[in-house]
């Protein structure tokens, strides 16, 4: 399916070397978009995603940054704008559980790594993108939150869930603040999604329990998340949609 108003638009997708971000970058490329593919520790994978974007008919640039650092977030956004001369869509996708531990065992270093990756990066990248989008007449910011933001997360992931709760609330608040500048701010909340690193952070028994509780009786795929981002990026499809969190979870948790 072609979404005409996305053709030629420029997007930065953080955390797009693997997982949902990579699938979103490829989906944008298939719409003829210009995509800044971001990576940090997986640059070979980012290069492969960029090649896929261009093979699908889009343009791509690969950018490296540690989005746990506020200054690097600003430089990343500026580099994306410089590469294409515009920035129409920002997808704040970089994030992760990092490490599962009971709260009493989380030291200061792990606390900051979780919060900086999942919450601070969304703030910093969004702040850097706003003046660019305002000067360009508008844009769309889409952040990846999580089912965990609503149910408190799985075993030993309280801080991750809380950081994603920040993302959901930040989305709603920022949407009110910038609507007058024709900037729409929304989020996508994936449920249990099969990603290459899922086994590293989620025990097998927890995945099995989630499948049993999901009405669709399976976990989702990263490709099944892409449509939500395309919808929210397109002004033609979601021009009157802002401040919303779109759930993609197979019915595991319903509003």
CATH architecture: 3-Layer(aba) Sandwich
The helix-strand sequence is EHEHEHEHEHHEEHHEHHE
Query: What is the global morphology?
Result: globular
Strand content: 15-25%
Query: Unreliable stretches, pLDDT < 50, 5 or more residues?
Result: none
Secondary structure topology:
Layout: E1 10-13, H1 19-30, E2 34-39, H2 43-55, E3 59-64, H3 70-84, E4 89-92, H4 108-135, E5 139-144, H5 148-151, H6 158-178, E6 183-190, E7 193-194, H7 198-201, H8 204-213, E8 220-221, H9 223-233, H10 235-238, E9 245-248
Parallel strand pairs: 1-2, 1-4, 2-3, 4-5, 5-6, 6-9, 7-8
Helix pairs in contact: 1-2, 1-9, 3-4, 4-6
Give an overview in words.
The chain is of the alpha/beta class and 255 residues long. The chain has one domain: Rossmann fold. The chain is built from ten helices and nine strands. Strands 3-2-1-4-5-6-9 form a seven-stranded parallel sheet, sandwiched between helices. Helix 3 runs parallel beside helix 4 and helix 4 packs parallel to helix 6. It starts with 9 loop residues before the first strand and ends in a 7-residue tail after the last strand. The mean pLDDT is 95.
